[in-house]
Amino acid sequence: MKMLSRLRLYILSALVLLAGCSVFSNPTERDTFKSEATSTKPLTIPEDLNSTQVKDYYPLPKIEKPFKETGTISIIPPGSNIKK
Prior knowledge:
Elements: H1 2-19, H2 27-30, H3 32-35
């Protein structure tokens, strides 16, 4: 019986925590960001930037034959300080 009381207390506590602050917030204040949104200028690309300066972060080789394992595969970004 004592275990059942504890279980009920835990469930009630979890429900209160999950409800969180949404019970106390005002819905009109919560949605004000939608009405206060403003438009901005479109994104412009600098004139001195061209497509030859943009490189793939993870270049993919062109595969002409079915996959054949050729070595180790690494997903560590080039030049990162993460050890293999």
